[in-house]
Amino acid sequence: MILELDCGNSFIKWRVISTTEMRVLAGGVVGSEDELIAVLSTSKIELSWCRLVSVRTDDETHRLMDKLRAAFAIESACAQPSREMAGVRNGYDDYQRLGLDRWLAVLGAYHLSNSACLVLDLGTAVTSDFVSGAGEHLGGFICPGMPLMRNQLRTHTRRIRYGDDAAERALQQMVPGRSTVEAVERGCLLMLQGFVHTQVVQARDWLGASFELYLTGGDAFLVKDEFPQAKVLPDLVFVGLAIACPLP
Q: How many other CB atoms are there within 10 angstroms of residue 81's CB atom?
């Protein structure tokens, strides 16, 4: 069985796939390396190899790989930056500075569409990436996502204090807010939706009338109803990871 990891700054997303059918057998999200080791140990899944993408420091990434080797006797392959791969050319002037999670999402989207595409990853930060029909990555944009927007307001405005449950309830409708939590949550969501709408409009200018729209990331569900043409793929990074780190 193959272990796949998407190691973000705060969480580690994991899944296990079969080596033959490439079918997902298990998966989840954990908050630390030790929690990952514990979850995998209790699952009793026999692992043979690991491939991962990490936006963490080299020391943190190598420490995780060492822990996996010690716990499960497996080697790990880590995705690396590339100027060009699988028909896609990295659009950054310094290609090594493009976040690996963005690069893999771009690889995955172009692999699935084989055409022009706009990739929107809605997480802690929101990123957009434009890819031409010829596989040219044209660059993109980065802005704060819902977690960053609400946390900044909570941090810098003393009277804004509410929990996650209240935030979730506030988004059940989008009329003007009649409490602080409603006003903040709905305002942040409108900013998020506005950014996505702008990216779609710009994509028509840069990619032409025909392009695929991909939504990924934890908050993709907040905007998907606004864009019925979009393909919502929570595991888009893993599609690119399989391209960047093929089976040995």
A: 16
